[in-house]
Design a protein that fits this description.
single chain; alpha/beta; five-stranded mixed beta sheet; globular
Length: 619
């Protein structure tokens, strides 16, 4: 093996004036919202432990340093090829682009441009120099819209992860703290760059560093601790068998399902405190379970009732078996339309993983299957309503924004019966200041397009199912071929509307309002999107019911829909033309639809109906 160099570098040292490439055989950029959220939470959490707004920026130099891992580089001439670490470097670059945008209107800015791009002979190129990604990176860098459809997986992920970063970055670092945070990120966050001068050496290092054959995972260590405290040999053998069988199921369900299950279960049942996001705040049980659940449980065992061998046996044979079973059911329900648990899927479509904490919180190991499902329906519906209200009012549902509120709900609903749970959740919603009535100017923009797509999918699906049609929700949110997109009823031609809008910006603002939007196949927008409303109208008559409701023929020989309109009293009507007043009328219709779909009183009615039924047999 030839010369190997390893050096700790700051983010600035790592990215300034350096061009990184990846070989064609390297995998795609695959980070998901979960990894982005964890990166942001780790960085901002560490920064906020020290941040003091009263001191000068140069005091940031005294903040503790933070190690973000290592990258492996293969040096080929003047080029540096990333062997390991491209996910992390790509995500850091996206974060820098976001931080650049956030400080654009400030008088004093921290220069991050040189860490993102460099210029030579008048030509600009990205320091993460990958040809196929250049168009999306350019659009994000310049703040321009970009359509990722029909591009590679990496390009689509880059575009979505950038918007995830925008949602995940907490408000605490966006205001006066922003330049402090950027300084800390560039100067106090380190990565170890390991440089080899041949591909063979680089990949040997990579394989050695990632050989975990003898390493024990936190789950392995937890298992050893629990089993060692079971005195009876037969019980220990039975507990070990149950543990192994369930871990196999968890691992088959996905890469991170196993550790996430343990964190969610233990937090939902035992966490009573969460770290405050301020200087000097110490990690509490909620935080420790998230980072070292095996050590936390060892320390907390007496406090949670683990004192004798029988307690440890019960913890595996009853508690672990029960909560891991239902966690797996929730993972399935977050990916598929499971009867009675549809709202779990709806919430998952917003990438809202915090729902698992509040879903498991009220469950008790001696609950019957029917009681468990009743509790899950109530909590999932609660989360669904809360998310819809926040999105309707342009509020963030990012992990960092929602974590404390979800912690409180989790803590305060632990072990509740369905009637008590319904009343408690209804009470929480009743305290919310912003509902659908709070905002009559909901509109689509670049940052909320995906979430508004999901809201439109719910509105569309509701009209159809309430009219007797089968659900097509999964079709509407599918990302595959034939996918549906947000379609504007008005084409993007302000000159056609000068009689009502004197300025193009006013037209654009109204055009993007919720009442002027539909969910239609991408092919429709490609074929008819540029036409006037009058020319598009006949084609709407062959689409979903929400689009068809614009056409007069939808109100003829359509008994299911007509019955729904009469029963609901909703102001559906056809439009031969579609002007400003019509768009505002349609916006009101959408709001009234939303108020029926996301109605907190439904939770109380569901419990009243369920309480009238007899108790079922346990699983």
């Amino acid at each position: 093996m030839r010369e190997i160099l390893g050096k700790a570098k700051t983010v600035r040292e790592l990215l300034k004036g350096v061009k990184y490439k990846i070989d064609y055989f390297q995998r795609e950029y695959k980070w998901h919202n979960k990894q982005i959220r964890e990166l942001v939470d780790d960085l901002t959490g560490k920064f906020l432990e020290e941040y003091d707004p009263s001191h000068a920026r140069n005091k940031v130099a005294d903040y503790p340093h933070y190690f973000l891992g290592s990258i492996i580089i293969s040096k080929k001439g003047d080029a540096s090829y990333i062997v390991d670490g491209q996910q992390r470097l790509t995500s850091l670059t996206l974060l820098l682009i976001l931080l650049r945008r956030l400080q654009q209107r400030r008088a004093k800015q921290v220069n991050v441009d040189e860490l993102i791009v460099s210029e030579k002979y008048g030509e600009k190129s990205f320091n993460l120099d990958i040809d196929e990604r250049a168009p999306v990176m350019e659009a994000l860098y310049e703040g321009q819209p970009f359509d990722p459809n029909d591009h590679s997986e990496s390009v689509q992920n880059l575009n979505q992860r950038y918007h995830d970063l925008g949602e995940a970055l907490p408000d605490e670092v966006r205001g006066n703290a922003l330049p402090y945070f950027i300084d800390w990120l560039l100067e106090n966050v380190h990565l170890v760059e390991i440089t080899a001068y041949s591909d063979d050496d680089a990949y040997t290092i990579f394989e050695t560093m990632n050989d975990r054959g003898l390493s024990l995972s936190p789950t392995d260590m937890l298992k050893g601790y629990l089993l060692s405290n079971i005195d009876d040999g037969a019980s220990r053998t039975k507990a070990n068998t149950r543990w192994r069988e369930r871990l196999r199921e968890l691992n088959e369900a996905g890469k991170d399902v196993e550790p996430d299950c343990f964190k969610t279960w233990l937090r939902s049942q035992y966490a009573t405190k969460i770290r405050e996001r301020k200087r000097g705040a110490k990690p509490e049980d909620f935080d420790r379970i998230g980072t070292e659940f095996h050590r936390w449980l060892r320390d907390a065992s007496p406090d949670i009732g683990l004192k004798q061998g029988a307690d440890f046996y019960r913890f595996i044979d009853r508690d672990f078996d029960f909560f891991s079973h239902w966690y797996l059911q929730l993972v399935d329900a977050s990916q598929n339309m499971v009867p009675e648990l549809e709202h779990v899927l709806y919430n998952a479509q917003h990438s809202f993983t915090l729902q698992y904490l509040v879903l498991l919180a009220p469950l008790k190991p001696d609950d019957t299957d029917q009681v468990v499902r009743r509790k899950l329906r109530l909590v999932a519906r609660f989360v669904d309503i809360l998310l819809a209200w926040r999105l309707w009012n342009f509020r963030s549902i990012a992990h960092s924004t929602m974590q404390y509120a979800m912690f409180l709900v989790m803590r305060d609903t632990r072990g509740m019966s369905p009637p008590a749970l319904a009343r408690k959740l209804h009470e929480v919603l009743a305290r919310e200041q912003e509902t659908f009535a709070s905002n009559d100017r909901l509109r689509v923009h670049q940052q909320n397009r995906r979430s508004l797509h999901r809201l439109l999918a719910r509105l569309t699906d509701y009209v159809e199912t309430a009219s007797g049609h089968p659900s097509r929700f999964l079709e509407y949110v599918s990302e595959g071929k034939g996918r549906y997109e947000v379609e504007h009823i008005w084409a993007d031609h302000s000159e056609q509307h000068t009689d009502e809008f004197s300025h193009p910006a006013d037209f654009a603002e109204h055009r993007n309002r919720i009442g002027g939007l539909l969910l239609l196949p991408k092919s429709f927008n490609a074929s008819y999107g540029d036409l006037t409303y009058e020319k598009k109208l006949p084609h709407y008559n062959f689409q979903n019911l929400l689009a068809r409701s614009l056409h007069p023929q939808c109100y003829e020989h359509n008994p299911g829909f007509l019955h729904f309109v009469q029963e609901s009293g909703l102001p559906f009507k056809p439009y031969e033309h579609f002007n400003k007043a019509d768009l505002e009328e349609r916006s009101l219709l959408y709001r009234q639809l939303a108020e029926r779909i996301w109605n907190p009183d439904d939770m109380l009615r569901e419990v009243d109906a369920c309480c009238a039924t007899s108790s079922p047999i346990r699983r």
